[in-house]
Write a structure and sequence with these properties.
Strand content of chain A: 15-25%
Number of strands of chain B: 9
Number of helices of chain B: 11
Number of helices of chain A: 13
Oligomer: heterodimer
Largest sheet of chain A: 8 strands, mixed
Radius of gyration of chain A: 21 Å
Radius of gyration of chain B: 19 Å
Strand order of the largest sheet of chain B: 7-6-5-8-9
Largest interface: A-B, 23 and 29 residues
Shape of chain B: globular
Largest sheet of chain B: 5 strands, parallel
Helix content of chain A: 25-40%
Structural class of chain A: alpha/beta
Order of helices and strands of chain B: HEHEHEHEHEHEEHEHHEHH
Strand content of chain B: 5-15%
Chain lengths: 446, 312
C-alpha cells in the first residue's frame, strides 16, 4: 500500500479490486484499473501489478467515469470578482467534475473566436478540470445576428446558446438550429418567454402571492420549450433545453422524444430538491433562493424527479452561477439570479435520488457523465482502455455537511449551507492527475 | 383565545408572524393609546430617551405622518431619512444602509421600502427592532391593525364578520396583511377584483376569490376598497377607467347588497370615481377618516409594545 495524495505528476497506479460503475461499458462490480501515462491503460480482473503502486480504496468507494457539468458560469473574462476559470474549476473538481462546459455570458460575451481562444488559453494555464466553451447564438446575445458558428466551433466551442437570455425569435432559433447542424453541435436554449417573464423574480403561485413577489409562470418556460421542439422538428437540428423546471415543459419534452425529435433536456439539483417554499424559510427572502428559472412548486419538483427516473431527462447540470456577496446582499427583487452548484451537486444527487430510492447509482452516472458527454459530443462518459484517465471516486455512504464558507468557488451563494447529506466525492482524477482528495476521508493514509 | 402580555418577536415584520392573542394585545393596547389622543395634552413620557428612526425608501405622506405623530406622543426622539428608490441607486447595499443607521444606535427602525422582504433582510443584520411600514407588495401590518381596530370599534368584534376586499389585489400589501389578520381572528373573507389583478393561489390563505362585485358584497359587514393605480389603467391589466368603474366601482346602489349597517373602508389615498363613488366615500357607510385617526393609536401601541411594554 502506498500513499495517495494530490500531486502534479501523473498517477502510475493499479487500483485493485475497486467498485467500478460504468453504464456505457456495462460494468458494475469489482475490477482492477491500471492508470498509467494519464490514461486508463487497462480495465479487468486480476491484473498484474507490473511494478506500479497498488492502491486499494476504502470500503464503499465507487470509481465512475469523470463527471461532466454542461452548464457552468465561470465568469472569466470580465467578472473575475465572482469566479475565475481557476477558482471555478477548483470548485468543479472538488465537486467530482472532471470537465465543465462554460456559458458564453461573460464580458465580453463569447460570441467570437477570439473570446473562445482566450478562454481556452486561460483554461490551459489555470484550470484543474477540462473546460469546454459554449459560444453565443447571436452577436452580443441580443437575438439579432447569428454568430460565426463555424469559427466558434473551430476555436473549441462545443455548443451555442444565448443562456441567461432566451432565443426570443422563432426565426433566429430556426436559423441557429439549421446552421449549427452543419457543425453537429446543439443549440442550448434558456427557455423563457420574455413577455410572460416580465420582471418576475419567483415562481408564479401561492408562495409568490403571499410574499408579494412578481411571478414567472411555468408556462413562460413551456411555451418556448414547445416552440423549440417544433423548430427542431422543422430543421432536424438538435435542441437542448437548459435547466428545465416546469412540469409542462417535461410533458413537451416527453412528447417530442416520442415523436423522434432531437430534443434533450437537463435539470439542476436545486429544481428537484427545493421548491418555492424555500423562499419562506430562514426568515424569508433569502436571495440564495433566487434563481432563473425560479424554484417551482411541489408538483414541478416531483415531475422533475419522475423525468430523471423514467429517462425523459437526459442530464443533471448545475447551472453553477457564482455571484459576489455584495450583489446577493441586495433586495430580493434586485439581487441577481443564480446559485453556485458544483460542490453541492453530488451530495444532493446521491442523497435525494439514490438513497431516496428514486434511481440507482448507474443511472446517476448516466445523468452526470455518460449523457452529458453524449449530448455535447464530448470525450469521456465511460472508462475505456486507452482513453484519458478522467475518473471520479464517489463515497456514496459518506455524510457531508455543506459549509458555504468552505466552498472552493470564489462565491458562496448557496441555499444549502448547513445541510447534512449522505453522499460525497472522495477524489477526482483528471488526465491521470489527482486533482482533488476529500480531506475528510481516509484516502491519504492508505 | 389565550391572553398575551407581550409580543414574541422584537420586530413587527408582518401580520403573518403574529397569532390571534398578539393581535388582540395590540388592539387592546391601542384602546388605551386612543384615550391619550383624546386628552388636552396628547403626550405621555413612555418612550422618553428612546430613539426611533423613520427610514423611508419610498415616498409616503400618510403613513409617515401617522408614525411620527405616534412617536412624538410617546415622547420618543425621532429622526427621519427619506431616500427615494433602492439604496443600490447610491451604490450602497441594503445592509450597508442598515449598518450606517445602526451605528447611531436607534431602538426602533420604522421602515418603508419598495421591495418585498427588504425589512426581513434588514432584521437579520440589525439589533434594533424593525417595524415594517410597508414593503413592496408584501405586507403593511400597521394598516391591517388599524383596520381591525376600526372594525372592532364599529362592530364590537372581528370574529364571524363577513369582509369583502375589492380592487387591485395583486399589487396590494394592504390586502396581504388584512388577509393574514382577518383569517387569524376568524372573520370570513371574500376578495374581488378583475382576473388580471388577482394573484394565484389566494385560496390557500383561506379566502374566497371572485370576479363578481355583487357576489362579494352580498351580506358583507365590512367592505374594504383597495386603490387602483392609474398606471394599471391603460395597459394589459385593464382596458379603461370607465370599464373598471362599471365592473368594480363601489356605488350606493351596489351597497344595498351589503348587510345592514355595513361599513366601507379605504386605506387611502382614494381615487374617487375609479374604485369608489364619492357618495359612498362620504356617505353613512364610510369610516375612512376613523381609520386615519385610529392609525396613530395603533402605531403608538406597536411602538410601546416593541419597546418593551410596561417594564421599560
Amino acid at each position: 500500500m502506498s500513499k495517495f495524495e494530490v500531486t502534479s505528476s501523473k498517477l502510475e497506479v493499479l487500483l485493485k479490486n475497486v467498485h467500478v460503475i460504468d453504464p456505457v461499458a456495462g460494468r458494475n462490480g469489482l475490477f482492477d484499473l491500471l492508470v498509467s501515462s494519464g490514461q486508463v491503460a487497462r480495465v479487468g480482473r486480476d491484473l498484474p501489478a507490473d511494478g506500479v503502486r497498488v492502491v486499494e480504496l476504502p470500503a464503499g468507494c465507487v470509481v465512475v467515469p469523470g463527471l461532466i457539468d454542461i452548464h457552468v458560469h465561470l465568469r472569466e473574462p470580465g467578472q473575475e470578482h465572482k469566479e475565475t476559470i481557476a477558482t471555478g474549476t477548483a470548485s468543479a473538481v472538488a465537486g467530482g467534475f472532471t470537465a465543465v462546459a462554460c456559458m458564453p455570458n461573460t464580458d465580453p460575451i463569447n460570441d467570437t473566436a477570439s473570446v473562445t481562444q482566450y478562454i481556452v488559453k486561460r483554461a490551459a494555464e489555470s484550470a484543474l478540470a477540462r473546460v469546454y466553451p459554449i459560444g453565443a447564438v447571436s452577436m452580443g446575445s441580443n437575438g439579432e445576428q447569428l454568430t460565426e458558428i463555424g469559427d466558434l466551433r473551430a476555436a473549441g466551442c462545443v455548443a451555442i446558446t444565448d443562456d441567461g437570455r432566451p432565443v426570443a425569435s422563432a426565426l433566429l432559433m430556426r436559423r441557429a438550429l439549421e446552421y449549427a447542424s452543419m457543425f453537429r453541435i446543439p443549440v442550448i436554449d434558456h427557455c423563457e418567454d420574455p413577455s410572460l417573464k416580465g420582471d418576475g423574480v419567483a415562481h408564479e403561485g401561492a408562495v409568490a402571492s403571499m410574499l408579494g413577489l412578481k411571478g414567472i409562470p411555468g408556462a413562460a418556460e413551456s411555451v418556448m420549450v414547445e416552440r423549440d421542439i417544433s423548430m427542431a422538428e422543422l430543421t432536424g437540428g438538435h435542441v437542448h433545453i437548459a435547466h428545465m423546471s416546469a412540469r409542462q415543459s417535461l410533458r413537451a419534452v416527453r412528447t417530442g422524444k416520442e415523436r423522434g425529435i432531437t430534443v434533450t433536456a437537463e435539470v439542476t439539483p436545486h429544481h428537484f430538491v427545493l421548491t418555492d417554499e424555500a423562499l419562506r424559510e430562514r426568515g424569508g427572502y433569502d436571495t440564495n433562493t433566487k434563481m432563473n428559472p425560479p424554484l417551482r412548486e411541489e408538483a414541478d419538483r416531483v415531475a422533475m424527479i419522475d423525468g430523471l427516473a423514467d429517462g425523459s431527462i437526459d442530464v443533471i447540470a448545475t447551472d453553477h452561477a457564482p455571484h459576489h456577496a455584495d450583489e446577493k446582499g441586495l433586495e430580493y427583487d434586485r439581487a441577481p439570479f443564480g446559485i453556485v452548484g458544483l460542490e453541492t451537486c453530488v451530495p444532493l444527487c446521491i442523497d435525494r435520488l439514490v438513497h431516496a430510492g428514486v434511481i440507482g447509482l448507474p443511472r446517476l452516472v448516466e445523468l452526470l457523465s455518460a449523457n452529458p458527454a453524449r449530448v455535447l459530443g464530448l470525450p469521456g462518459g465511460t472508462i475505456a482502455e486507452g482513453a484519458t484517465a478522467d475518473l471520479t471516486i464517489l463515497a456514496p455512504d459518506q455524510t457531508v455537511t455543506i459549509r458555504a464558507s468552505q466552498l472552493r468557488s470564489k462565491s458562496k451563494n448557496t441555499p444549502f449551507d448547513g445541510w447534512a447529506l449522505k453522499g460525497a466525492v472522495a477524489a477526482t482524477i483528471v488526465g491521470g492527475r489527482l486533482v482533488y482528495v476529500n480531506s475528510e476521508m481516509n484516502l491519504r493514509h492508505l | 383565545m389565550t391572553t398575551a402580555t407581550a409580543l414574541r418577536s422584537r420586530h413587527l415584520l408582518g401580520i403573518e408572524d403574529l397569532d390571534a392573542a398578539e393581535i388582540d394585545l395590540i388592539l387592546e393596547t391601542a384602546l388605551a393609546m386612543k384615550e391619550v389622543g383624546a386628552r388636552p395634552i396628547k403626550k405621555v413620557p413612555t418612550l422618553r430617551g428612546r430613539t426611533v428612526v423613520n427610514l423611508f425608501f419610498e415616498p409616503s405622506t400618510r403613513t409617515r405622518m401617522s408614525f411620527e405623530l405616534a412617536e412624538k406622543r410617546l415622547s420618543a426622539d425621532t429622526l427621519g431619512m427619506t431616500t427615494v428608490g433602492s439604496s443600490v441607486v447610491k451604490g450602497e447595499t441594503l445592509s450597508d444602509t442598515a449598518r450606517t443607521i445602526e451605528a447611531m444606535a436607534p431602538d426602533i427602525i420604522v421602515m418603508r421600502h419598495g421591495s418585498s422582504g427588504a425589512p426581513h433582510q434588514l432584521a437579520r443584520v440589525c439589533k434594533a427592532s424593525i417595524i415594517n411600514a410597508g414593503d413592496g407588495t408584501h405586507e403593511h401590518p400597521t394598516q391591517a391593525l388599524l383596520d381591525a381596530f376600526t372594525i372592532r370599534e364599529r362592530k364590537g368584534r372581528l370574529q364571524g364578520l363577513r369582509v369583502a376586499i375589492v380592487g387591485d389585489l395583486v399589487h396590494s400589501r394592504v390586502l396581504r396583511s388584512n388577509l393574514w389578520l382577518l383569517t387569524k381572528v376568524g372573520a370570513s373573507v371574500v376578495v374581488c377584483g378583475p382576473a388580471t389583478l388577482v394573484p394565484p393561489g389566494l385560496e390557500r390563505m383561506g379566502v374566497e376569490v371572485t370576479n363578481d362585485l355583487d357576489r362579494a358584497l352580498d351580506g358583507a359587514d365590512v367592505v374594504m376598497m383597495l386603490r387602483v393605480q392609474h398606471e394599471r389603467m391603460h395597459g394589459l391589466f385593464l382596458p379603461s377607467v370607465r370599464e373598471y368603474f362599471t365592473l368594480f366601482g363601489l356605488t350606493p346602489a351596489r351597497m344595498k347588497r351589503a348587510a345592514p349597517e355595513a361599513i366601507v373602508m379605504h386605506p387611502g389615498p382614494m381615487n374617487r370615481g375609479v374604485e369608489i363613488d364619492s357618495d359612498v366615500a362620504d356617505g353613512p357607510w364610510s369610516v375612512i377618516l376613523d381609520q386615519v385617526a385610529n392609525g396613530v393609536a395603533v402605531r403608538m401601541a406597536v411602538l410601546y409594545l416593541l419597546a418593551g411594554g410596561e417594564d421599560s
